[in-house]
Amino acid sequence: MSFEPAKPKVYLLTFAALLVLTVITVLAAKLTLPKIPMGILILDLNIVLAMAIACVKASLVVLYFMHFKDMGQVSKVWAVAGVFFLLVMFFMTLGDYENRPSEETVGWTESGPLHDARP
Amino acid sequence: MSAAGVATKQPEAVNYLNVDNSIKSWLLTEDHKRIGILYLVTISLMFLVGGIFAMLIRLELLTPAGDVVMSDTYNKMFTMHGVIMIFFFLIPSIPAVLGNFCLPIMIGARDVAFPRLNLASWYVFTLGATLGVTALVLGGVDTGWTFYTPYSSSFSHTPVIIAVSGAFVAGFASIFTGLNFIVTIHKMRAPGMTWFRLPLFVWAQYATSLIMILGTPVIAITLLLVAVERGLRIGVFDPALGGDPVLFQHLFWFYSHPAVYIMILPGMGVMSELIATFSRKRIFGYEFVAYSSLAIAVLSFVVWGHHMFVSGQSMYLSMVFSVLTTLVAIPSAVKIFNWAVTMHKGHVKLDSPMLYALSFIGLFTIGGLTGLFLSAMAVDIHLHDTYFVVAHFHYVMVGGAIVAFLGALHYWWPKMTGRMYPEPWAKLSALIVFIGFNLTFFPQFILGYLGMPRRYHSYPDEWQTLNVLSSAGASILASGFILVAVYLLWSLRYGAKAPANPWDATGLEWKTPSPPPPTNFTQRPIITEEAYNYPIVLSKNGEPGEAVKQEEAEKHEHA
Amino acid sequence: MSTHEGDLHVGHQFEDAEQQLDSYSAGMWLFLVTEVLFFGGLFLAYIIYRTRYTEAFVAAHHELDWQLGGLNTVILITSSLTMALGVRAAVLNRMKAVLGWLGLTFLCAGGFMVVKYIEYSAKFEHNLFPGPNFEFHHAGIDPGQAQMFFNLYFAMTGLHGAHVLIGMITMIILVIRLWVMRKQRIDFIPIELTGLYWHFVDLVWIFLFPLFYLVGGN
Fold first, then answer.
1. CA–CA separation, B392 vs B398, rounded Å?
2. C-alpha to C-alpha distance for B542 and B348, rounded to whole angstroms
3. How far is B118 from chain C (nearest CA, A)?
4. Would you report the helix, strand and coil content of chain C in percent, each value rounded to 5?
5. Mutate to test the interface with C, among A31, A33, A75 (most CBs of C within 10 A)
6. Residues B361, B387: contact at Cβ < 8 Å?
């Protein structure tokens, strides 16, 4: 591993790309995208789009500002592992909320679960 | 291993203990060995405090009526017992004391990669422990060690913020240790020390560090949120603020289940060292044991929901967690079987560390198998929050982690202090701890199965016999621990001088004098063979006289 | 690694400068991994409540000024650029350039905090800080759910702001260290590590900006 720095041009291009993507993410928020119900959650596709753009921006920062190619093997493996376990935490927890009975149908009656127990 | 750093026979040799005796040299030390000793002193004090609470709990449970303390006080007692034992004793026990002391020597390094961070870790830990004790002095916390919201954040009238900050701060000590170990293992190995020549203790420390690095930050932010929710009423867990308490449980157990493996994985690493040394054999299936540590660490992150089967969590997710939980049994069993096979036809010597190792195998197996009961959802509904759970995790944490810690302490004590302890007393202590432990916790399995709930200070009369047995066992167990403390402290002054390699073991730490010199080795070791290069037995009658070094046997083949 | 080692100090535990550099770099990346999971807990809370209280979050986010948030985004991206150039100058041993770029980065960080202060004080004035004084009136929106938006807003941007402050303090220490050791070859390792930390702070904000200021989907 070494810290042979990139040419200033690389940094400036990254900077410009980040600015352009910032404008795109602002514009993307003006769109009205569908909302998908999942359990007690509602997935708004706007957030998915915004996060996709943010991931691209984050990748640019990691790849060029943080010199991903110059990183040691250890750092690379651990960076990937960190993101992997973060996603495990996100998706397994979301798995709970997605599959919980929605709040209107909470309760357990004589005829079985998932029936409206409220008066 | 190489001849580098072989013990010199001079009695006055400079070692890490006598190189400088001033208090300042201890408090500002960057030597991993001294930091290990500092940690040992701190966690021993915390163990004493936590142990006193355990005895008070067993005293209260001696009689069915809640007659010794009020129920509120009882809540504080089991909470402080749990908080202190888990955050301030078990989590740092093997990694911060014996890992710190042995790991750099085992890989042939002069020190860990970041010595100052290592010292900072001890200071941060001590600060956390001080906060924990402060919460205790201010009257104690009554939330249970799990700090479940909204009770902890909104209703408890005890110093929760201080206790939570203590655990938060101690978490950073854990992160520092884990970070240091990972970089040290990757970057500081001596020439020739390949991954598959590493002692299995090092593999286990690596797996432990993985959990420390990936899990601890999550508990840190969670506890921070609890403190903020309590202090500022900005919160994400309290239903009164629109929050979901189950989210707290998800975040809490995302760390705290893997944290169980922070406690047990280093113990498993110790086992591999002890079993190999005292069976005089290479660990059977070295690669499997090494990878099983990593497998346990990774699997530990996908099973946390089994703590939440009755929390209102989606039952579909509970099913997934239930199945995943049973998978942990596979790498755990790999270890147990491989240790058993290692002992098979080995020259088993029943020195005191080996006695601890053998009791670990028995107790951990019971702890692990009862864990399988609890991982099954239907059984867990019946056993949830009963003494069955209490017995299960004490079999793992005391029968596993603490017995392993004691085994390790006995094994490396001559190396750490340069003194031998009295072996007959040590053997007796291993026996007392084993008997006392089983008498304390086995009746609790039955009590739990009969339905006795945990965290109550009174119980129906018909459970008294079993509870009296348990309390009696706790007294025996405590006297075992006290005995260990007495003869180890005695040995510091009166014990015989320890040779460099009292157990006739392989491994780099036994090639350097006891206690080791400040930089561990007189010259940098070059590694040419694996950690467990024990003589292999060539004859069928198994006489040690006919044993030939593995390497020599290979040479014969070539010749 | 040969040309830049110069007379860099090598710690007693290391064999050579390369091992030292590798170790520090790996250590910093591991620290950043812990930071990812540290923020991760809050992001998980955000995801849960954002998807649960969708309408309240959309309504509440109109109380934030996306132009100020956007300004801060641009400021942080700019500071990442100046920091990257500062690290480059440090490796090339150009003292004046290092001081200049670090100074610019510091100014950007200060600017970010000033904008943050303006935003926070506006929220306090409008009783949007969660707690007993919280007021949120919007037809059909549960104020408790809107309060959750501000809970998360203050928790996440507050934690991020704390990281910005720590970065600024680190930069001051770096400059003092450079001044004290001005006669020697620049020890670029601390600057490189601070740079990694600073880019991470930028990276967190890249996610926070759309999550709070651009909830969208009315």
1. 10
2. 11
3. 13
4. 75, 0, 25
5. A75
6. no
Chain B residues touching residue A82 (CB < 8 angstroms)? 214
Query: Which subunits sit against B, judged by 3+ Cβ pairs under 8 A?
Result: A, C
Q: CB C133: neighbour CB atoms within 10 A?
A: 9
Among C34, C43, C199, beta carbon nearest to A61:
C199
User: Touching A: which chains, 3+ CB pairs < 8 A?
Assistant: B, C
Burial of residue B465, with CB atoms counted within 10 A of its CB: 0-12 exposed, 13-18 middle, 19 or more buried:
exposed
Of B214, B312, B317, the CB nearest to A85: B214
Distance, in Å, from the CA atom of B145 to the CA atom of B132, rounded to the nearest integer, reads 12
3-state secondary structure of B459: coil
CB contact under 8 A, B234 and C23: no
Three-state DSSP class for B549? strand
- CA distance to partner chain B, nearest, from residue C90 (Å): 23
Torsions phi, psi for B172 (to 5 deg): -65, -35
Identity of the residue numbered B210? L
The SS3 call for residue A112 is strand
β-sheet bridge partners, residue B453: B386
Alpha-carbon distance of B213 to B277, in angstroms, equals 30
The pLDDT score that the predictor gives to residue C97 is: 93
pLDDT reading at B543 higher than 80 = no
Q: Which of C15, C179, C173 is nearest to C96 (CA)?
A: C179
Contact C155 B225 (CB under 8 A): yes
Tens digits of pLDDT across chain C (218 residues): 334 445 567 888 898 888 998 999 999 999 999 999 999 999 999 999 988 888 889 899 989 999 999 999 999 999 999 999 999 999 998 999 999 999 999 999 999 999 999 999 999 998 888 888 888 888 888 888 889 999 999 999 999 999 999 999 999 999 999 999 888 888 889 999 999 999 999 999 999 999 999 987 55
C44: its two tokens: 């998980």
Could you give the CA distance from residue B275 to residue B281 in angstroms, rounded to a whole number? 8
Q: CB of C147 within 8 Å of any CB in chain B?
A: yes
**In whole angstroms, what is the distance from residue B91 CA to residue B73 CA?**
26
Instruction: Tell me which residue in B186, B236, B241 faces C26 most closely, judged by beta carbons.
Output: B186
pLDDT of residue C83: 96
DSSP state string for B14-26? --TTTS---HHHH
> What three-state secondary structure class fits A109?
strand
Q: Which residues in chain A are closer than 8 Å to C70, comparing Cβ atoms?
A: 22, 26
For B172-229, give the DSSP string. HHHHHHHHHHHHHHHH-PPTT--GGGS-HHHHHHHHHHHHHHHHHHHHHHHHHHHHHH
Per-residue pLDDT at A116: 42
Q: Do A97 and C52 touch (CB under 8 A)?
A: yes
Which positions ≥6 away from A30 have C-beta within 8 Å?
C216
For B271, residues 6+ apart whose C-beta sits below 8 A from its C-beta are B335, B339, B357, B360, B361, B404, B407
Q: In chain B, count H helices and then E strands.
A: 18, 2
Structure token pair of residue B134: 């402060």
ipTM: 0.92
Contacts of B557 by beta carbon, 8 Å cutoff, 6+ apart: none
CA-to-CA distance for A10 and C85, rounded, in angstroms?
A: 10
pLDDT at residue B234, as a whole number: 81
pLDDT surpasses 50 at A109: no
**Which amino acid is residue C157, in one-letter code?**
T
Task: State the DSSP code for B523.
Answer: S
Residue type, B290: A
Contact (CB<8Å) A85/B316? no
- Determine the Cα–Cα distance for residues B57 and B69; give it in Å rounded to an integer: 9
Upper half-sphere CA count for residue B27 (Cβ side, 13 Å): 4
One-letter amino acid at C36 equals V
Q: Give the tokens for residue B558.
A: 């070539």
Residue B484 pLDDT exceeds 60: yes
